[in-house]
Design brief:
There is one protein chain. By secondary structure, the chain is α/β, with parallel strands linked by helices. The protein folds into 2 domains: about 5-85 and about 190-260, 3-Layer(aba) Sandwich (Rossmann fold), CATH 3.40.50.1000; about 85-185, Hypothetical Protein, Haloacid Dehalogenase-like Hydrolase, Chain: A, domain 2 (2-Layer Sandwich), CATH 3.30.1240. About 30% of the residues lie in helices and about 20% in strands. It has helices at about 25-35, 50-55, 85-100, 135-140, 155-165, 190-200, 220-225, 235-240, 255-260, 280; strands spanning about 5-10, 40, 60-65, 70-75, 80, 105-110, 115, 130-135, 145-150, 170-175, 180-185, 210-215, 225-230, 245. The strands form 2 sheets. It has an 8-stranded mixed β-sheet. Strands 8-7-6-9-11-10 form a 6-stranded mixed β-sheet. Helix 3 (about 85-100) packs across helix 5.
């Protein structure tokens, strides 16, 4: 059965390690677009980080951002839906985490801006106009689509094992990168809930959806979809639940699956313009 909706994570899944897409993946995405089959990018990125992704992929369809907390419309460049954590929840979550990890540092993502404590060392949000360094009271002062927490010494899986029970039923805890950075969303907000809402709007059953991912923040989406694919470089937990493990993000793993339904031929070789011929060369050869 040909899928009616495709959902793919971006970093570590669709994009190569240098945050580009190969020519093959570009052709596969273009073939899907020509078919009219909807494809959704489902990412932990906020809308303010989308521009290079959209330029690389030529994507014009829906984008689920911030692990399901936002739905972004590319043509109008507007956020259509947003599900932030309320201030009371932010404060309760931060208090519980600080109790078990006094050295943890916090940040808040709003979609169009980002604030963090001085002790929070961002990997990407450095020296940008929409980024501010503030104290914790300001980080927790307004609703945020994601609360982020870093720890200088713990690995991601070890930190998750501590933070998840500390947060309990207050919010959703996950992580989407190799370093110790927890990403916390409002209760009930995941990539799966956002994808399910999109599928319902399109009149598509979950059995007709395929999903690609690589990190724990992709797990709910992959468990929800009718069929799931983990790229070779995926986290062990993602590989364990996937219906199929495909090539890595460096090996066009996503494209290899899409080509099963939307085949594309090899790139055509460049054809050089014909060289002009002299009048003598252009004359027919006489055969006496």
């Amino acid at each position: 059965m040909t899928p009616r909706l495709i959902a793919t994570d971006v970093d570590g899944t669709l994009l190569r390690p240098d945050e580009t897409v190969s020519a093959r993946t570009g052709r596969a995405l273009a073939a899907v677009a020509r078919s009219g089959t909807p494809l959704a990018l489902v990412t932990g990125r906020p809308p303010r980080w989308l521009r290079p992704v959209l330029a690389e992929t030529a994507h014009r369809g829906p984008v689920v951002c911030a692990n399901g907390a936002m739905l972004y419309d590319v043509p109008t460049q507007r956020v259509l839906r947003s599900y932030p954590m309320e201030v009371e929840c932010l404060r309760a979550v931060a208090e519980n985490i600080r109790r078990i990890l006094p050295d943890a540092a916090f940040a808040a993502e709003y979609g169009d801006a980002f604030v963090h404590e001085p002790g929070y060392r961002p990997r990407w949000d450095v020296d940008l106009p929409e980024v501010s360094i503030v104290d914790l009271t300001v980080v927790l002062a307004r609703p945020a689509v994601k609360l982020l927490v870093r720890h200088a010494e713990l690995g991601a899986d070890a930190m998750f094992a501590l933070v998840r029970p500390a947060v309990g039923d207050l919010a959703v805890v996950t992580h989407g990168s190799g370093d110790a950075r927890m990403e916390i969303s409002a209760l009930g907000v995941t990539k799966a809930t956002a994808l399910a809402a999109l599928a319902e709007e399109l009149g598509i059953d979950r059995s007709e959806v395929i999903a690609f991912g690589d990190m724990p923040n992709d797990l709910p989406m992959m468990e929800w979809a009718g069929r799931s694919y983990a790229v070779e470089n995926a986290h062990p937990d993602v590989r364990a639940i996937a219906d199929e493990v495909v090539g890595s993000n460096s090996e066009d793993g996503v494209a290899g699956v899409l080509e099963r339904w939307w085949p594309v031929g090899p790139p055509r070789p460049a054809v050089s313009a014909p060289r002009p011929r002299s009048a003598a060369a252009a004359a027919p050869t006489r055969r006496d």
